[in-house]
Design a protein that fits this description.
Distance between the termini: 65 Å
CATH class of the largest domain: Alpha Beta
Number of domains: 3
Number of strands: 12
Helix content: 40-55%
Low-confidence stretches: 346-353, 387-392
CATH superfamily of the largest domain: Reverse transcriptase/Diguanylate cyclase domain
Length: about 400
């Protein structure tokens, strides 16, 4: 039996979720990413904004120049994660073999799960209908016998499209497409291929493999196989995350210690909430700093005992930050925190260790705060020292 793989991708996800949340935004150019007066990039642009040339990764200030009437919104990850969870739940109703590719797209192996649908196209249509009915969002679906073709197909039929590439038709489908449509081919690779006289996927497929390997190494071998419609990769169930990280880019480069500490604390709040929601503890804490000249450094330390307590993570991260600030006095444009060496949460408390009981009290406080934030909003409750200090 030939494999059948779907690639399902929600259209303009962040912006579309915001339009669902606020129907007054429907039909208007919406840009998610933050205040265009501050430093940052576009995370998502509605299809109404795209004709102006706005796309993900573009500086917000540039997006405003392209479309002054656009509506700029802050990123709301809680809102998007809730929609994503419902999206993934819908997909599991059609097949248990699902491989999420982030928050808004996934592969689905439906080879043995077509019934009761008469065709894979009918099954894909049913998925799209469920997504539209339950989430009020649109999705594009690519269908093929392999992952790479399914992903390219879903990209080409956006928005709200459905495109099936029949087995044996992969080369015909790929041949006229520009090489930039091949996953993994970025601007540098595209330019290198162009210098070799290769501008289409068909030309790449016809180029001798050894010539591609000499230029691009092992990645070139995979690229050449994909160009020929060959992709044996399985749809793999998601594995446990090895690390969790959060970061923020500032509107202005700064060395204000109070502001940096406040920003770090907020990042630690978000990250520790994420650990507790996964029932995980972290054994290693790291911070990342990017300076005004774009030099980036990381510093990390291992904990004597894994933890998901906000205060433990923040205290450790703050020690790393203070040490780094003593070492070099350079304006900072980005700060981030990462936890790794993740383990299960539960452990037995010692009977006579007051430190452990204080830590357990802190965990309970963290959980209570997290529950309130999930029910109302991320800003509905704050500790006194969570209140940010403006970077003047």
């Amino acid at each position: 039996m030939a494999r059948c793989i779907f690639h399902i991708d929600l259209d303009a996800f962040f912006a579309s979720v915001e339009q669902v949340h606020n129907p007054e935004l429907k039909g208007k150019p919406v840009v998610v990413g933050g205040d265009p007066n501050r430093r940052g990039v576009v995370s998502s642009a509605s299809y109404e904004a795209r004709p102006y040339g706005i796309h993900a990764g573009m500086p917000l200030s540039q997006a405003r120049r392209f479309c002054p009437q656009a509506i700029f919104l802050q990123v709301n990850f809680n809102r998007y994660q809730q929609a994503s969870a419902k999206f993934m739940k819908i997909l599991t109703d059609f097949s248990p073999i699902i491989e999420p590719l982030g928050i808004d797209e996934a592969y689905l192996d439906v080879t043995e799960y077509q019934q009761p649908y008469h065709s894979h196209e009918q099954m894909a249509s049913a998925i799209k209908e469920r997504i539209n009915k339950e989430l009020n969002l649109t999705a594009s679906v690519g269908i093929s016998a392999c992952k790479v073709i399914a992903k390219i197909a879903s990209d080409l039929c956006k928005p709200d499209g459905l495109l099936e590439i029949a087995p044996g038709k992969e080369r015909d489908f790929l041949t006229p497409l520009p090489v930039s449509k091949l996953p993994g081919v970025g601007k540098k690779t595209e330019q290198a291929l162009k210098e070799m006289g290769i501008t289409t996927i068909g030309e790449l497929a016809s180029c001798p493999l050894e010539e591609i390997r000499k230029t691009f190494g092992m990645s070139g071998i995979a690229m050449h196989r994909y160009a020929n419609g060959i992709d044996d990769r399985l749809v793999e169930l998601p594995s446990e995350p090895k690390s969790i990280n959060h970061q923020i880019t500032f509107a202005h480069d700064t060395l204000d210690r109070h502001f940096l500490e406040s920003s770090l604390r907020e990042l630690c709040n978000e990250l520790s909430d994420g650990l507790r929601s996964r029932n995980k503890q972290a054994g290693c804490i790291a911070i990342k700093l990017r300076y005004a000249d774009f030099e980036t450094i990381t510093r990390q330390v291992s904990l004597t005992e894994a933890s998901n307590a906000t205060q433990v993570i923040f205290t450790t991260a703050l020690q790393l930050l203070n040490k780094t600030l003593r070492e070099r006095q350079k304006p900072i444009r980005l700060i981030g925190i990462k936890v790794s060496t993740l383990t299960g949460r539960e452990k037995q408390l010692p009977l006579f260790d007051p430190t452990e009981f204080r830590t357990e009290k802190q965990r309970r406080l963290d959980n209570a705060i997290a529950q309130i934030r999930r029910k109302y909003s991320a800003t509905s409750i704050k500790r006194g020292n969570d209140i940010p200090i403006k970077n003047l």
